[in-house]
Fold:
Amino acid sequence: MQSGAESAAGDQTILRVVDLLAPERVKVPLEGLDKESILAELVDLATQSAGLAARRDEIHQAVWEREEVLSTGIGDGIALPHAKIGGLDTVAVAAGVSRGPVEFGALDAEPVRLLFLVLGPETAADVQVRLLSRISRLLSGESLRQRLVSAEDARRFCEILREAESAI
Structure:
């Protein structure tokens, strides 16, 4: 049986966020107090746990360049920063909850508290789009967003997400 990450190679298997997000890739709360430091923190989480530490600066630059094109703050206190990374062979995800509201230039002009970073292979943009869409749908309910923001630690954050995703 393929995992969500293995299915990223091109089939249409549903990518489950919980299959790609472990507690070591979640930080509750994030230390950063602004957009730039929070993005750096999320990149650190993703690169350290995905064996990409040697490419940290390159990945951070790609995420920042994507953010400068158009904010990934999608509204309702959510940001989904993302980038396509050459040479990456699978999707890498990190998440966090900010200590307080962070100005992110979101579409609804509201600050962000809940962030999911998605790094995807350049050769599998469709996989990244499907995953971003799934995260967005999953977080559409205010109750879930509030529970995630209120999670006491990374392990509980992942448990809440797993429960919510198993229900859809």
Observations:
- The domain at 16-166 is CATH 3.40.930.10 (Mannitol-specific EII; Chain A).
